[in-house]
Please model this.
Amino acid sequence: MKASKVCRIGLQPKVHTRGTCKAIPRSGACISQCRPYSSYNHFVSKLEPTVNESLPESSLEHAFTLAVKDNIATTDVPTQCASNILASHKSPYEATIVRQLRRRGARVVGKTNMDEFGMGSHSTHSAHGAVRNPLSSGEPRSAGGSSGGSAVAVKLGDAQVALGTDTGGSIRLPAAYTGTVGYKPSYGMLSRHGVVPYANSLDTVGLLAQDVQSIQRLVIETGLAEEHDPNDPTSLPPKTRQRCKRATASLPTAPERLTIGIPLEYNIEELDPSIRQVWQLASSVLGEQGIRIVPVSLPSTKEALCAYYVLAPAEASSNLAKYDGVRYGARGQGGDKEGETLYSETRGAGFGAEVQRRILLGTYTLSSEAIDNYFIQAQKVRRLVQRDFDRVFKVANPLYEPQHFDLSDMDASTPLEDKRGPAQVDFLLCPTAPTFPPTLRELEDQNAVDTYVNDVFTVPASLAGLPAISVPVPVQGSQLPAGLQLIGQFWDDRRLLEVANMVQRWLKA
Model:
């Protein structure tokens, strides 16, 4: 196939602070002067995990250690989003997802490092410093972002499961770079109440683990996927959950009854040849197991990345407007000059360079002179991306009416199944990231656009709100694994996890 070009958990836990500070500023921030826990800098605070004896015996039998990303609220340690503006911030309540997992036996071991407010692809934009990939034997490499600390905690065995958030690939990309499993559920499935928002229409809470089975047990077998949270306006209502569940309940998972699609547009020029080879090899292995492999066309994929980097910053600029040192956030040290905005010093000193960049970008795209040419057009592209996914999946999206397939839009090289159009599929298989993790030195020489390209394969599923999971695959002759991504139809999470579990077993053999 021809490569295409892409547009650019217990009571009174023992708390270990991130380090010792030489001095504590008036704002309470002790971020930059603290000594990291390890050479990988993946924790920002640690807890001595304790067992909650009030839990039922069934939960105690399945107790597991849990690391929590630093933008998910906890009451026993601060929630800082890796930002100076929230330094030492203590949440008055705990995120729903943390409480739900505690009831299932979770013992929280600490909060993990991340890109500030989730804005980044390499966990380098953090007031705590960059997270480093434990797979690197020489120069330190990227651990992926923004949930890099969570991925490293799982890889090193510091936690059996880690919570992350995925806005455009922030769980799947770190999973691919660290050789772990990263799962982003269908939008609205897991509660976001208590998660500091980045982009509300895209933010999704997900899980990282060493294997798919651990995630499968937590999400499906314990009924986590069926819990509606009335405190989260984006949590799917109970009636809608039941309707979506009925739509996917009887679908097959036997390999000989599955069809997996290979998106032609995902074969981009920037794709590393070794990752392309692993992708092709994995397709062959799945075919040998009885799964039918077919090419599919997702023509709007080429514009998905551009649309995402208009929509996400726009929502971020709105969400972060409240961090002014008056309503939220630590006040800056300097006083505001006469005639200046009250909170100019606070925002300038509190936000890092990448957050400032995205706020400015988002503010511009929402301005009266630019909203029509950028934000509105990006919303239209988002609908096209969702339409492309809906028409290639066998199962109809339970939230929408089925749409007709316009043959004139698809790639000319896509073979037709019959006169009605090309073959439809159960899942899509593609790489998670186009390259292996770059070194931190290489990242210093990259501009913002070069960095954003790392999200090219993860962003489309985020725009459409679809479930996706990254599974690690060994690469012959390399110490670094590749991540392969499976994408499913909306609310087809149960089957997605079952198939991903099989794929992980087959590709390990």
